[in-house]
Design a protein that fits this description.
globular; alpha+beta; 3-stranded antiparallel beta sheet; 12% helix; 3 strands
């Protein structure tokens, strides 16, 4: 069994739509807006919510793409926007 640390994705389809291989000629840019659909947190007891690094990672849906971003790289605008 592999001991390699990886994120456990909330859904296989989401995993397949995340990352450069699925984005083709699209790439996320500073200032883009999206919705946070999942959060991985360091040391979470739940493996599905556990970050594989010592930082919180957010999974953001932008258009029909999914982007994993370290939390410090995100500005949350709140529900009123």
């Amino acid at each position: 069994m592999s001991k390699r640390k990886e994120l456990q994705w909330p859904d296989e389809l989401v995993r397949l739509k995340a990352g450069k291989n699925s984005w083709k000629d699209w790439s996320p840019q500073e200032g883009m807006e999206g919705h946070v659909i999942h959060r991985w947190v360091p040391c979470s007891r739940d493996p599905c919510n556990r970050s594989h690094i010592d930082k919180t990672i957010l999974l953001i849906k932008i258009e029909d793409k999914y982007v994993a971003v370290i939390e410090t790289g995100v500005l949350e605008l709140g529900a009123e926007v």
